Amino acid sequence: MSLPTLSAARGVALRVPSLETTAAWLLAVIWIFPLVYAVWAAFHPPAFMVRFDLFAPLTLENFANAWSQAPFARYYLNTFLLVTGVVLAQFVVCTLAGFAFARFPIPGRDILFMLVLIQLFVFPEVLIVENYRIASGLGLVDTITGIGLPYVASAFGIFLLRQTFKTIPRELEDAARVEGCGWMAILLKVYVPLAKPTYLAYGLVSISHHWNNFLWPLVVTNSVESRPLTVGLGVFSAPETGVNWATVSAATLLSIAPLLVAFLLFQRQFVQSFLRAGIR
Amino acid sequence: MAAMTSYRRMQLYGALLLLPAAVLLATFAYLPTIATLINSLFLPGFRGEPAEFVGLENYQLLIEDTTFWRVARNNLIYALGTIPTSIAIALGMALFVNARLPGRGFVRMAYFTPTILPMIAAANIWMFFYAPQIGLFNKLLGALGLSGVNWLGDPSVALTSVIVMTVWKEAGFFMIFYLAALQSIPPELKEASDLEGTSRWSFFWRVTFPLLMPTTLFVLINALINAVRVVDHLFILTKGGPNNATNLLLYYVYENAFSFFDRTYAATITVVILLVLAVVATVKFAILDRRTHYQ
């Protein structure tokens, strides 16, 4: 195990005895196994669910079944509209609020900011009962807007953008003002471009959150026209529906595929985003 | 005078920038929170009759509701079962992938991937393992000549099965925070301890673990919130059953509101959840963030 050329490498890297390597790999295999198993079940005929035969025939029939038994195309569209809408709306609303908190002398600013931070703990899904009533009062039940709107003013987004805006030197703002920029132009030409990494991090975290969100969308939707993928999958694969398992695993893979592929392609960005968004 | 008006104008401008967020937060966070508190003091009005004010009667019902206590106890067991385990596994994972390890990229990816899946999808996949007749676990036990376990149908096992799935789903997420923290520990510390011949075991407990304490607390807060907030998997795995053995507080709220149509009792249980979250928030702001400056 001694690698003299690497011993000069920086980092707290320890010399790993093979016992640790084995344990690390064993844990990795256990951790990835459920997903590998879902792939196995989805690409083989139902008879091979628990028969592991290397030469088992591959098939796409489970996907065809899933696709024809539930309106997945519609669910994809709904999830896509939901995620795009939520993220764009969050960007606008949180940018304005973050900018206000970072640069404007609003009376009672600190108290207001603490009030905003409360939403880090009290999520829309905890308040499903009352939020359902409010959504229904606003005529938003069973609409994609109704799924997304409670999440638009995200305390988390406001917090992240405020912190980022605060680190931007005032000199840049003053320079823009000398060139005759108003507040909106300063926001769009100075602050927003310099906060790009924050937008990327927050955007990725928000996309994965809303792609995967379930409880509130389940409560607020009741038709195919507005259901996102998670709710569609939940309805489709509820054990009492008796859909065969190979089809359920194909449906499961269908619903996670886009996000999973994006993650595998941009692992670094995803992990960095979760980190940036988490450590504050 | 001119300066005064420009200051005023900035105040006004700032307030306007804040307005969209304020309206939305009021509508979907503050208003429903207050309405929840108020509704917990009423009985639902039937057939269009107005709701009836009953004071603390709902809370009296709650205290006498054995199902509620069962659910609250489940949630406590669920938190105690998932949080320390996933934190310990996450730390182990981070130590593994922070060390020199062949195939490190793959191992890290394997650990983190469950994080990216929806809870619903994860539950679907675990359903293949847990199902009584055709599930993989029982097939494997059968192959070893052992009798199967009713993983989700046996009240004494079901909650543990749900906990195991949750740990699998969460550990990789917490790992990345530990990994980032480990990478920020100056390598000089390790070099110095190597010179002094400190064992790796005592280096971990005396240096690494204390330095990771802020990360542990951060992860702990997140895990606590998730233990109250995430019940998606129950919809697939158990629906809170058998006989409420896996029911959790938020799922019980859902059942009361949307299956039993008892909105005000659901509000009363929601108040309990809000109290738990308030405690978590107080701990975070009062204790953990004392050194963080929000200015």
TrEMBL record, chain A:
Pfam families: BPD_transp_1. This is Carbohydrate ABC transporter membrane protein 2, CUT1 family. One of its GO terms (biological process) is transmembrane transport. The chain crosses the membrane at residues 23-43, 75-99, 111-129, 135-161, 182-205, 245-266. Gene3D superfamilies: MetI-like (1.10.3720.10). InterPro entries: MetI-like, MetI-like_sf. GO terms for cellular component: plasma membrane. The keyword Transport applies. It comes from Franzmannia pantelleriensis. Keywords: Cell membrane, Membrane, Transmembrane, Transmembrane helix, Transport. Belongs to the binding-protein-dependent transport system permease family. Residues 76-266 form the ABC transmembrane type-1 domain. It is a multi-pass membrane protein. It is found in: Cell membrane. It comes from the Bacteria.
Automatic annotation (TrEMBL), chain B:
InterPro entries: MetI-like, MetI-like_sf, UgpAE/MalFG_permease. It is found in: Cell membrane. One of its GO terms (biological process) is transmembrane transport. GO terms for cellular component: plasma membrane. Residues 72-284 form the ABC transmembrane type-1 domain. It is a multi-pass membrane protein. Pfam families: BPD_transp_1. Keywords: Cell membrane, Membrane, Transmembrane, Transmembrane helix, Transport. CDD domains: TM_PBP2 (cd06261). The keyword Ribonucleoprotein does not apply. It comes from the Bacteria. Belongs to the binding-protein-dependent transport system permease family. This is Carbohydrate ABC transporter membrane protein 1, CUT1 family. It comes from Franzmannia pantelleriensis.
